[in-house]
Design a protein that fits this description.
- It comes from Schizaphis graminum (Green bug aphid).
- Pfam families: BRCT_2 (PF16589), RTT107_BRCT_5 (PF16770).
- InterPro entries: BRCT_dom, BRCT_dom_sf, DDR_Transcriptional_Reg.
- One of its GO terms (biological process) is DNA repair.
- Keywords: DNA damage, DNA repair, Nucleus, Phosphoprotein.
- With 210 residues, the chain is α/β, with parallel strands linked by helices.
- The chain has two domains: 102 residues, Rossmann fold (3-Layer(aba) Sandwich), CATH 3.40.50; 79 residues, Rossmann fold.
- Helices cover 48% and strands 13% of the residues.
- The chain contains nine helices and eight strands.
- It has a four-stranded parallel beta sheet with strand order 2-1-3-4. A four-stranded parallel beta sheet has the order 6-5-7-8, with helices on both faces.
- α3 links the parallel β3 and β4.
- α3 crosses α6 and α3 runs parallel beside α7.
- The chain is elongated and about 60 Å long.
Protein backbone atom coordinates (compact mmCIF):
# COMPACT_ATOMS: atom_id res chain seq x y z
CA UNK A 1 0.00 0.00 0.00
CA UNK A 2 2.86 2.37 0.84
CA UNK A 3 4.45 1.57 -2.51
CA UNK A 4 1.19 2.49 -4.26
CA UNK A 5 1.08 5.83 -2.42
CA UNK A 6 4.70 6.53 -3.36
CA UNK A 7 4.01 5.70 -7.03
CA UNK A 8 0.88 7.87 -7.06
CA UNK A 9 2.73 10.77 -5.45
CA UNK A 10 5.58 10.36 -7.94
CA UNK A 11 3.14 10.51 -10.86
CA UNK A 12 1.53 13.67 -9.47
CA UNK A 13 4.91 15.35 -9.03
CA UNK A 14 5.99 14.31 -12.53
CA UNK A 15 2.75 15.75 -13.89
CA UNK A 16 3.35 19.05 -12.09
CA UNK A 17 6.89 19.28 -13.43
CA UNK A 18 5.65 18.50 -16.94
CA UNK A 19 2.95 21.19 -16.74
CA UNK A 20 5.40 23.73 -15.31
CA UNK A 21 7.85 23.18 -18.16
CA UNK A 22 5.12 24.26 -20.59
CA UNK A 23 4.81 27.66 -18.87
CA UNK A 24 6.80 30.29 -20.75
CA UNK A 25 6.63 33.75 -19.20
CA UNK A 26 7.32 37.18 -20.65
CA UNK A 27 7.25 40.54 -18.87
CA UNK A 28 6.15 44.04 -19.82
CA UNK A 29 6.67 47.27 -17.89
CA UNK A 30 7.67 45.75 -14.56
CA UNK A 31 10.05 47.89 -12.52
CA UNK A 32 13.63 46.72 -12.94
CA UNK A 33 14.16 46.16 -9.22
CA UNK A 34 11.32 43.61 -9.23
CA UNK A 35 12.00 42.06 -12.62
CA UNK A 36 15.01 39.97 -11.61
CA UNK A 37 13.12 38.58 -8.62
CA UNK A 38 10.15 37.72 -10.85
CA UNK A 39 12.43 35.91 -13.29
CA UNK A 40 13.85 33.87 -10.41
CA UNK A 41 10.31 32.98 -9.32
CA UNK A 42 9.61 31.61 -12.81
CA UNK A 43 12.80 29.55 -12.82
CA UNK A 44 12.27 28.16 -9.32
CA UNK A 45 8.65 27.25 -10.11
CA UNK A 46 9.78 25.26 -13.14
CA UNK A 47 8.97 27.62 -16.01
CA UNK A 48 11.09 29.54 -18.48
CA UNK A 49 11.44 33.23 -19.34
CA UNK A 50 11.45 34.74 -22.82
CA UNK A 51 11.53 38.24 -24.27
CA UNK A 52 9.76 37.00 -27.39
CA UNK A 53 6.02 37.66 -27.20
CA UNK A 54 5.42 35.09 -29.93
CA UNK A 55 6.86 32.33 -27.71
CA UNK A 56 5.33 33.05 -24.31
CA UNK A 57 2.28 31.37 -22.80
CA UNK A 58 1.72 34.08 -20.15
CA UNK A 59 2.48 37.81 -20.08
CA UNK A 60 3.02 39.51 -16.71
CA UNK A 61 2.44 43.26 -16.42
CA UNK A 62 0.70 45.85 -14.23
CA UNK A 63 -1.87 47.45 -16.56
CA UNK A 64 -3.11 47.53 -20.15
CA UNK A 65 -0.94 49.68 -22.41
CA UNK A 66 -0.83 49.92 -26.18
CA UNK A 67 2.60 48.32 -26.41
CA UNK A 68 3.74 45.76 -28.94
CA UNK A 69 3.87 43.02 -26.31
CA UNK A 70 0.44 43.65 -24.82
CA UNK A 71 -1.30 44.09 -28.17
CA UNK A 72 0.40 40.96 -29.49
CA UNK A 73 -0.63 38.99 -26.41
CA UNK A 74 -4.27 40.02 -26.84
CA UNK A 75 -4.07 39.19 -30.55
CA UNK A 76 -2.80 35.69 -29.70
CA UNK A 77 -5.25 35.13 -26.86
CA UNK A 78 -2.29 34.88 -24.48
CA UNK A 79 -3.27 35.46 -20.81
CA UNK A 80 -2.14 38.81 -19.39
CA UNK A 81 -1.79 38.58 -15.62
CA UNK A 82 -0.57 40.65 -12.68
CA UNK A 83 2.54 39.84 -10.65
CA UNK A 84 0.47 38.19 -7.90
CA UNK A 85 0.01 35.20 -10.21
CA UNK A 86 3.74 34.59 -10.13
CA UNK A 87 4.08 35.26 -6.40
CA UNK A 88 1.32 32.78 -5.55
CA UNK A 89 2.70 30.24 -8.00
CA UNK A 90 6.14 30.48 -6.44
CA UNK A 91 4.74 30.17 -2.91
CA UNK A 92 2.95 26.89 -3.65
CA UNK A 93 5.56 25.75 -6.21
CA UNK A 94 2.94 25.24 -8.89
CA UNK A 95 1.72 27.61 -11.58
CA UNK A 96 -1.76 28.83 -10.69
CA UNK A 97 -4.83 29.22 -12.90
CA UNK A 98 -4.21 32.36 -14.96
CA UNK A 99 -7.92 33.19 -15.10
CA UNK A 100 -7.81 34.05 -11.40
CA UNK A 101 -5.10 36.67 -11.96
CA UNK A 102 -6.01 38.39 -15.24
CA UNK A 103 -5.22 42.10 -15.30
CA UNK A 104 -8.14 44.28 -14.22
CA UNK A 105 -7.67 47.78 -15.62
CA UNK A 106 -10.91 49.74 -15.26
CA UNK A 107 -9.49 52.85 -16.93
CA UNK A 108 -8.49 50.91 -20.04
CA UNK A 109 -11.81 49.04 -20.06
CA UNK A 110 -13.71 52.34 -20.04
CA UNK A 111 -11.45 53.95 -22.63
CA UNK A 112 -11.56 51.09 -25.13
CA UNK A 113 -14.96 49.67 -24.15
CA UNK A 114 -13.76 46.09 -23.76
CA UNK A 115 -13.34 43.23 -21.30
CA UNK A 116 -9.93 41.54 -21.37
CA UNK A 117 -11.29 38.07 -20.66
CA UNK A 118 -13.76 38.35 -23.55
CA UNK A 119 -11.11 39.63 -25.97
CA UNK A 120 -8.73 36.80 -25.09
CA UNK A 121 -11.50 34.23 -25.56
CA UNK A 122 -12.36 35.66 -28.99
CA UNK A 123 -8.71 35.60 -30.08
CA UNK A 124 -8.35 31.97 -29.04
CA UNK A 125 -11.40 31.05 -31.09
CA UNK A 126 -10.35 32.93 -34.23
CA UNK A 127 -7.51 35.31 -35.00
CA UNK A 128 -8.80 38.78 -35.88
CA UNK A 129 -6.81 39.18 -39.11
CA UNK A 130 -7.04 35.63 -40.42
CA UNK A 131 -6.93 35.73 -44.22
CA UNK A 132 -5.90 39.40 -44.44
CA UNK A 133 -2.91 40.78 -46.31
CA UNK A 134 -1.80 43.87 -44.38
CA UNK A 135 0.51 46.62 -45.59
CA UNK A 136 1.83 49.23 -43.12
CA UNK A 137 3.14 52.56 -44.41
CA UNK A 138 6.47 53.91 -43.02
CA UNK A 139 5.27 56.74 -40.75
CA UNK A 140 2.75 54.69 -38.78
CA UNK A 141 3.18 54.45 -34.99
CA UNK A 142 3.87 51.86 -33.59
CA UNK A 143 6.44 51.49 -36.36
CA UNK A 144 6.25 48.91 -39.16
CA UNK A 145 8.52 46.37 -37.42
CA UNK A 146 6.40 46.37 -34.26
CA UNK A 147 3.26 46.34 -36.38
CA UNK A 148 4.62 43.30 -38.20
CA UNK A 149 4.72 41.34 -34.93
CA UNK A 150 1.25 42.53 -33.86
CA UNK A 151 -0.29 41.73 -37.25
CA UNK A 152 1.34 38.30 -37.40
CA UNK A 153 0.09 37.50 -33.88
CA UNK A 154 -3.40 38.50 -35.05
CA UNK A 155 -3.16 35.97 -37.89
CA UNK A 156 -2.56 38.51 -40.65
CA UNK A 157 -0.05 38.26 -43.48
CA UNK A 158 2.28 41.26 -43.24
CA UNK A 159 3.32 42.37 -46.75
CA UNK A 160 5.87 44.94 -47.91
CA UNK A 161 4.29 45.54 -51.31
CA UNK A 162 1.11 44.63 -53.11
CA UNK A 163 1.32 41.91 -55.72
CA UNK A 164 -0.56 41.97 -59.01
CA UNK A 165 -2.96 39.42 -57.57
CA UNK A 166 -5.71 41.09 -55.57
CA UNK A 167 -7.35 39.37 -52.63
CA UNK A 168 -10.73 40.01 -51.06
CA UNK A 169 -9.15 40.80 -47.68
CA UNK A 170 -6.56 43.55 -47.96
CA UNK A 171 -5.79 46.25 -45.41
CA UNK A 172 -3.56 49.30 -45.47
CA UNK A 173 -2.60 50.71 -42.07
CA UNK A 174 -1.48 54.28 -42.62
CA UNK A 175 -1.57 57.93 -41.55
CA UNK A 176 -2.03 61.35 -43.16
CA UNK A 177 1.73 61.82 -43.50
CA UNK A 178 1.82 58.87 -45.93
CA UNK A 179 -1.20 60.01 -47.95
CA UNK A 180 0.70 59.87 -51.25
CA UNK A 181 1.33 56.16 -50.67
CA UNK A 182 -2.26 55.09 -50.06
CA UNK A 183 -4.32 57.51 -52.16
CA UNK A 184 -4.07 55.37 -55.36
CA UNK A 185 -5.39 52.39 -53.41
CA UNK A 186 -8.19 54.55 -52.02
CA UNK A 187 -9.08 55.87 -55.48
CA UNK A 188 -9.15 52.37 -56.97
CA UNK A 189 -10.99 50.84 -54.00
CA UNK A 190 -8.88 47.67 -53.91
CA UNK A 191 -8.03 47.77 -50.20
CA UNK A 192 -9.59 48.89 -46.94
CA UNK A 193 -7.63 51.75 -45.39
CA UNK A 194 -7.44 52.36 -41.64
CA UNK A 195 -5.21 54.31 -39.27
CA UNK A 196 -3.12 52.70 -36.54
CA UNK A 197 -5.51 53.80 -33.77
CA UNK A 198 -8.32 51.90 -35.47
CA UNK A 199 -6.18 48.77 -35.73
CA UNK A 200 -5.09 49.05 -32.08
CA UNK A 201 -8.68 49.47 -30.88
CA UNK A 202 -9.82 46.60 -33.09
CA UNK A 203 -7.20 44.29 -31.60
CA UNK A 204 -8.02 45.30 -28.03
CA UNK A 205 -11.75 44.74 -28.60
CA UNK A 206 -11.18 41.80 -30.97
CA UNK A 207 -13.64 43.36 -33.37
CA UNK A 208 -12.35 44.68 -36.69
CA UNK A 209 -13.67 48.15 -37.51
CA UNK A 210 -13.23 48.88 -41.22
Amino acid sequence: ENNKKICTRKKILESLVENSSETVVSFSYLKSRHLQEMKQFVDKTGGTVTDEITECSVLVTDKIRCTMKILSAIARGCPIVNANWLKHSYTVQMFQDVDDFLIVDKDAERKYKFQLKESLAKAKTKRLLDGYNVLVTPSVKPGPQEMKVIISCAGGNYVLNWTNTQYSKELIVTCDKDRNRWKPAWDNDFAKIIDSDTLVTSIIRQKLTI
